[in-house]
TrEMBL record:
Domain FAS1-like dehydratase: 15-159
Protein name from the UniProt record: FAS1-like dehydratase domain-containing protein
A Pfam family annotated for this UniProt entry: FAS1_DH_region
Superkingdom of this protein's organism: Bacteria
Lineage: Bacteria, Bacillati, Actinomycetota, Actinomycetes, Streptosporangiales
InterPro entries: FAS1-like_DH_region, HotDog_dom_sf
CDD domains reported for this sequence: R_hydratase_like
Amino acid sequence: MPVDETLLESIRIKIGSETTHSLGPITALMIRRYARAIGESNPLYFDPEFARSRGYADIVAPPNLVTAITCWDEGPAADDLRTDGTPKTLQLEGIPTSGVRVMGGGEDMEFHAPITAGTTVVERSTMIDAELLHGRNGQFIVVRYRHEFVDDDGLPLVTSTRKVLLR
């Protein structure tokens, strides 16, 4: 599939559409595993008594935990992964990814409130923009998404704006 105005227009029809899904409760085990994986040693991420002594209900998730997890289920089997570790059937809301190379293009994050173990998180995702650009190696499309992570009462936790590149 060529990266051109036709592809851009097929993507732009999804601008403004929102999807919402529950990520479920963020567990203490998820927090600890993620903190270990990123090399953290802060006791806020591991020790409930320490976290409570600092005014939190339980251990606290590292700030970017919810934005770093790309798959909230068990994920695909190894045979269903590309060499870069992403699913062969990669699905991005509003993007026909067959025949194009999809790459991350950066992310801006705004942190509103700490996420503690036991918090149920809901993600609202909206495609906010798509544009065709010309680079040294040809045309590419930049698609921007806003992801709002809120608790089950609607309290904002994290807002991220991600860029996805199609070449």
